[in-house]
Amino acid sequence: MPKLVDQADTAPADTPYAAHNQPKDTPELRSLYDAFDAEHLIPLWKEIGDLMPMEPSSRAHPHLWRWSTIHPLAAKSGDLVPVGRGGERRAIALANPGLGGRPYATPTLWAAIQYLGPRETAPEHRHTQNAFRFVVEGEGVWTVVNGDPVAMRRGDFLLTPGWNFHGHHNDTDSPMAWIDGLDIPFVHYTDTAFFEFGPDEVSTRETPERSRAERLWCHPGMRPLSALEPMHNSPIPAYRWEHTDRALSEQLALEDEGYPATVEPGHAAVRYTNPTTGGDVMSTIRAEFHRVRAGQQTVGRREVGSAVFQVFSGEGTVTLGDAQHRVGTGDLFVVPSWTTLSVQAETDLDLFRFADTPIFERLHQDRVEVDAPDGGLS
Ligand code: GTQ
Ligand code: FE2
């Protein structure tokens, strides 16, 4: 297996650690190091620049995947690869080129394009990994969560929190693709994964207009008195596009009317939340939607932890540290930890974003730095 950690042999020359007095290279020193090796011991002084950097320096790259490239490949796998028990899902992961050939978009997050052909079914299962879907185009698939069918349509953000049974069924004669986000890498590193197969067929073929969970939970500002305890995952199965779209357009309209509503001029944004806590939708994943007006540039911002964006609509340029990418509808890009991101919108630009920040907030390891509008830091 490819090694996941680049091991430094000596303190890197470009860090303050380089000032450390290295011992003289003598035969005794070499035999000491050989003895360390034989006993599975590693001295800190050879690794410190990598283990204890002055600030995060992610192995993940700020990579971009184009929808126009990955969607046809997903469609091709629809022709060649059956979906069913065992493989479970026709999901193709974004593999960050900095992460040693593993199917990880970032050190903590999985992002994949999933493809389901006409009338196909992805069988039910459950796992401790938290999952969501975001739909950039198309409709017609039903994700069935604990026996409750939930329609998937363009712009919807759908949840499958850990340990809920879920399967997917395409009830139309057209294929559909969407993106999945999960905390698979985080769960893998921490050896906390459990998995169970469900029934081979998805447990319902009903296609109701609204899922039972939406009928119970999706009334703005209200919760049922039958469920007053806080839940660590949001009970909302689908955050519908009409609400996201209206929330953003109203923020911009209020800004035009002179009321404070946007995060910065011409930049509207919402976070999807758990209505029982007001916090993030799931314990390991934050999800947001951003709308930047044509001609606006967002202020540079970096934070601890990693994020993945998908362009929902529009065109622009993203600056990620030293890298710049022109982006359009469906394109996906990674923002590694502590990498400054700024977005320049050519047309009105709609961006879906997910990140691992809830993990670091819970552990009090979170940090954010925002460029001052004059180019300095605040
Ligand atoms: O749809 O249940 O991309 O279990 C990876 C693992 C999707 C899913 C993925 C999964 C799923
Ligand atoms: Fe799953």
Automatic annotation (TrEMBL):
<protein>
    <submittedName>
        <fullName>Cupin domain-containing protein</fullName>
    </submittedName>
</protein>
<keyword id="KW-0560">Oxidoreductase</keyword>
<dbReference type="InterPro" id="IPR047183">
    <property type="entry name" value="GDO-like"/>
</dbReference>
<feature type="domain" description="Cupin type-2">
    <location>
        <begin position="114"/>
        <end position="180"/>
    </location>
</feature>
<feature type="region of interest" description="Disordered">
    <location>
        <begin position="1"/>
        <end position="25"/>
    </location>
</feature>
<dbReference type="InterPro" id="IPR011051">
    <property type="entry name" value="RmlC_Cupin_sf"/>
</dbReference>
<dbReference type="GO" id="GO:0016702">
    <property type="term" value="F:oxidoreductase activity, acting on single donors with incorporation of molecular oxygen, incorporation of two atoms of oxygen"/>
</dbReference>
<dbReference type="InterPro" id="IPR014710">
    <property type="entry name" value="RmlC-like_jellyroll"/>
</dbReference>
<keyword id="KW-0223">Dioxygenase</keyword>
<dbReference type="InterPro" id="IPR013096">
    <property type="entry name" value="Cupin_2"/>
</dbReference>
<feature type="compositionally biased region" description="Low complexity">
    <location>
        <begin position="8"/>
        <end position="19"/>
    </location>
</feature>
<dbReference type="Pfam" id="PF07883">
    <property type="entry name" value="Cupin_2"/>
</dbReference>
